[in-house]
Amino acid sequence: MALLFLKSVVLPHRIGPKYTPLPIHATDSLSSNEKNQSSPTETVRISPRLISDATIGLSDGLTVPFALTAGLSALGDSHVVIYGGLAELIAGAISMGLGGYLGARGEADAYAAKLAETRELVKGSSSRAQMLIGEAFEGFEIRLEIVDAFAQDLQDNDERTVDFLMKFRWQLAEIDFVASRAYVSGLTISGGYLFGGLVPLLPYLFLESVEQAFVGSLLVMMVALFAFGWIKTALIGERDRWTCGKNGVQMVVLGSVAAGAAMLSVKALSG
Fold this sequence. Notes:
Layout: H1 2-10, H2 32-37, H3 48-72, H4 78-124, H5 126-135, H6 144-154, H7 158-169, H8 180-206, H9 210-235, H10 241-270
Helix pairs in contact: 1-6, 3-4, 3-8, 3-9, 3-10, 4-7, 4-8, 5-7, 8-9, 9-10
């Protein structure tokens, strides 16, 4: 029974009877709550990796340009603040985007190398592959004879063995390392930085007084950080408002600390 369960999880289309829907009258006994839970219209969640990239870009975009414009505002010239902020914003977006692209590209190259290594291992040493399959089930307290039987059945197909080892032994899913992932990561981080950096710069475009623009930039940055923390938490499926609000406050605190440290550094260097 345990062996059949393992096969049904890893090799679902090779064994097991064909799925047959329940009769209509059998579903009448389900409660409304159960029907809602089984509804196909479940909450769509954005990829955690995409949210992570957006967080990196937006958080840096909201804090770094703010700190720069705050330091430049001491000169008392709004034009200097605007031009300096825009220059940093463009350069920072390009730099952050390239960093995200190169990082994701490196991960994809590492995945390809591990995939090639695993294929060579499966073709060259069946005993080593069988041992690695067994190691994937360590901690589940499954009897050794069941794991061995499963490993032998799995090794009838080399590609299935490679796929199993990549997913369950090395914890590497191909979908996380596709070639297009590098472009998406770079564009997400760069776009997040550019959008986030424009937010604290807007008050300097509409207010003549540099002092008022600085206060407005500070308030706008804090509101944007709180909103971003709330939305980011909600996008991963969290519906509790207290948790969303707490993460929003956390973003405000961390962003304010980073911006404050940058401002103090600028003032210390300027004397």
